[in-house]
What we know:
Layout: H1 28-61, H2 65-70, H3 74-96, E1 102-104, E2 109-111, H4 120-143, H5 153-176
Antiparallel strand pairs: 1-2
Helix pairs in contact: 1-3, 1-5, 3-4, 3-5, 4-5
Amino acid sequence: MASTRVRKAFRYPADNSDEDDEPIELDEEEQEKLIAKLRYENEERNDQYMRFFLAIPTTSVMTFFPAILTSRSLQAKFVSILAITSLLSTAYMLVFISNRRSQDHKRKRPMRYLEPETGPVHRYLGYLNAGLSLLLSLYAIGFRGRKGVHDGFWILCLLPGLVFCIVVIARRVMLSVDVSELEGLKYGYKGA
């Protein structure tokens, strides 16, 4: 019987690396350490971003206090209170409402939520806040060029919608990285 040998194609060594381009195989313990390190770094980064994006709606709330205190128009005061409500609900959504998705390892489809539903506030606050931002945008159109209201007040009415969009996009980007998906990608290399 003729023996067959599998031959590798000859490649010139790379000028800038002393190692082969072969992937490094990690045993189970090294994989666990790497996944734990990545999970920790991801959580730290998400906490930093959450603190940064939490500062946006909380500092934006302060822009509406002068309108409440100095405006003579009852409608402007009411709109300012609605805007503060929208900004505070945006901050609440950022901190307390989780939007994490989990993988169903049997079907490989994302499950809806990890936590059980906690009530209508968590379920509908995003929709209510989007509606409130739209209502404030309509008020901004009505306040533009109106007498008895500060000249730039209509721009302030657009602020809660803008902050809401920024926070929603930031949450989706923050939560799009899911380190727990790496658990399913581990390979069973028994080594060392």
